[in-house]
Design brief:
Layout (H helix, E strand, L loop, with lengths): L2 E7 L8 E2 L6 E7 L2 E9 L7 E5 L9 E4 L2 H13 L1
Antiparallel strand pairs: 1-3, 2-4, 3-4, 4-5, 5-6
Length: about 80
């Protein structure tokens, strides 16, 4: 199983506490074996600075939310989520 965090340049940035463009102007999303599975957002440093994976909705139900301090930890947690 291959988990990747993909960065895509965004044309806008968001001033909110939690945003996918909060620090560097890039949007991020996660893929598992080449299939997009959800978005990755980052909290501003004064809100903890952690990354959050928000899984896409399935059958009208909200997907999982996974938080980690670094992108490497987040990738590992996403892989664990999809292996179970």
């Amino acid at each position: 199983m291959t988990v990747k965090i993909v960065k895509v340049r965004s044309l806008t940035t968001s001033p909110f506490a939690c945003s996918n463009t909060v620090d560097d102007g890039y949007c991020r999303y996660a893929t598992v074996d080449g299939k997009r599975v959800g978005d990755v957002v980052k909290f501003k440093p004064d809100w903890g600075g952690s990354y959050v994976f928000e899984e896409e909705w399935h059958d009208g139900k909200r997907g999982a939310q996974i938080e980690a301090r670094t992108l490497a930890d987040l990738k590992r947690k996403i892989a664990d989520h999809y292996q179970n």
